[in-house]
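Appendix C reproduces, verbatim, an entry submitted by the partner laboratory led by Prof. M.T., so that reviewers can inspect both the input and the predicted structure.
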Amino acid sequence: MIIKSQSLTKDNEKGLYLVSTPIGNLKDITLRAIETLKKSTYILCEDTRVSRILLDRYEIKSRLISNHKFNESKNLNKIIDLLKAGEIISLISDAGTPSISDPGAILVNECVRNNISITPIPGPSAVATAVSISGFSEKFIFCGFLPEKKQALVNVFNKVSKFDETCVFFVSSKKVNKIIPELKKNFSGRKIIFCREISKIYEEFIRKNVDDLEIFNKGLKGELTVVISEKQIDKNRSQELSESDMSIIKSMINKLTIKEITEIICHNKDISKKEIYNYCLKVKNEI
């Protein structure tokens, strides 16, 4: 990893800064984030009441502009004009990284079209945090917030469940019980972890097997980050050699060793090495 000296970073450029804020514990903010917010003329935020708690904690006096999903399009021209005039503007969300399942993408794309500098200030991420403590594969698919309508939800789960990788999504605690039947239907055989209040005093990680899921009786609060494990391979079940596999083995039998052939055939298929070995011997004996 190469760490640039402060003088070589973009921190003194005019333009838009996407600043990550704590996902719970207010101490989880970087020094660079604090510096950036203090030097900003304006800070765009989802809820000024929520952001003011963080800003007051670190004595940040920059002017706030309410910028949420219901008014971000309306604000767009005004903000672009301010950026073109040379103002430094930061964009934050209530928690985490802006424009990831939060407002920001519309403004970012407009800045790109207008050749306005955009600088990310990285920080806490509920997704990375949840995956890191899950114990599941680090290769994951992130689905953001689940759709509201049932058919749209069914379509998402049908699609995502076909992938082998870990799956991550956000869901409101008020809606979690509604998705449990679909989870059991689509992700049978996998493990799951519900992460709530990450980095806060009531932080909780609920680990279950998907097949053992039941409706939550106790009242959960807030938004949940949910991680489903990668697809499990049943080592007691293996595929059989297909006609295509047999043809490939015959074409390679005089060119490669049995070990090399076995590695090639097993690369993308769960076939018993013993079965491949025995078939290779059979082909050799027939030559």
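The longest helix spans residues 273-286. Additional entries are available on request from the coordinating office.
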